[in-house]
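Example record used in the benchmark description.
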Amino acid sequence: MTGEPTPFTDEELTAAATVPLTDEILYHALQTGTQALSEFGHTVMEPVFRSQLALTDRESAIGITFYRLLAAVHTLSDLRKGYQFQAISGETRLIFELCVDIHLLAKAKIADGVDKFHGFTRAARFSAAYKTVQFYKLHPDLEDPGDAEERRKLVETPGKKEEIETLCNGLWGSHKAPEHWSGLRWSEQLELLDPEVQEWFVQWSALHAWLIHGGGAGVGGLSPRSFRSIEVLCREKVKALVPEAYRLVAVAMHMHRALANFFDELDQVKTRVETYAAIDAKLQSLGRPSKL
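Model output (structure tokens):
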């Protein structure tokens, strides 16, 4: 569908305009848009990425984040039931965080950002293993011996703890890893990005937090239709965020040089797919065959 003229005739467009945009048609269009973003990443971008050899540390960091983003968008595309609104919200929050990471990495917003990204992997894994080993020292009867060997080997390697502390001191000025690889709080990360990205966080971060944690703040007094409105919000925001993240990845990895019309096709996915899906669904409601 990308890169092609509109598949509808003037008569079909006129006929579709007589059909109201129902909730079901809206959900279908938005879900189709998410699916198109997923397919574009997997079928257009990923093969080019996979073909690249000898990645730099920067490219590796962007690649790790890109593959996580692909998986998250694919997962969101598969979530289509009304009762999945909490999972949709959680996945959207993850997509938002990964898009922020891509902005920080691709635009070099963090001093020594690439070193911090990869150093965080080492330090965070050591910290998790260390905390687990300490817990089982207090509760040895709970530990599965089959799971313990690798953790203990990492934690109890002579000099490893000191090595990690030296790494953390050099990157973040602390003896342990921060909550995020950048060393910044959420608000500090977002201050480095465009106001439009900050706006989304200010408006909706509380709702997403309510829906992945305990309590009833995210659902109390809401109707089932309101739950579907959460899905609408999430998919619209993903459509706004993900194409720019894809663009940044493509430029960083030089994909746009290998793929003719890359940016035009990405723009088609962002601006036309949902519109075409809605028109097609309206025509089908009139008994006409699908044109897509």
